[in-house]
Design a protein that fits this description.
Number of strands: 4
Shape: elongated
Radius of gyration: 24 Å
Structural class: alpha+beta
Largest sheet: 2 strands, antiparallel
Number of helices: 5
Strand content: 5-15%
Order of helices and strands: HHHHHEEEE
Low-confidence stretches: none
Length: 140
Amino acid sequence: MKFRQILTNIFLKLQRFMQGRYGVDEISFILLGSGLILSVLSNFDKLRFLYFIALIPIVLSFVRSLSRNITARIAEREKYLTLVEPIKPFIKLQQNKFRDRKTHRYFRCKNCKATLRVPKDKGKISITCPKCNEKITKKT
């Protein structure tokens, strides 16, 4: 019971310490991850200098997380999201293509550029685009 009380006290002190601070977000995770990857790479003989470079993103990650300037951190996050949002659908499509690589084929409609998913190994089929009703004949 004593150990549990100690952990609860530590958690409460950490919670009080973090009040009014920004906390962890996607950018902090990316900085921390890239720093950890660089520090692992620094274990190779010819890449020892990466250790000091790896400290930069790790320290920046902690500085962002402990920052009290919340408005600046939110503005940085908004800029990050405007850069990343257009890329997310492409990454999701690539993940779906990889997941369905054995069972489905993906085609693009020539008219509206929509992505169409059809079952694999059905021979030559006629596909109707659900957005523009364009008929496409493709071999799956």
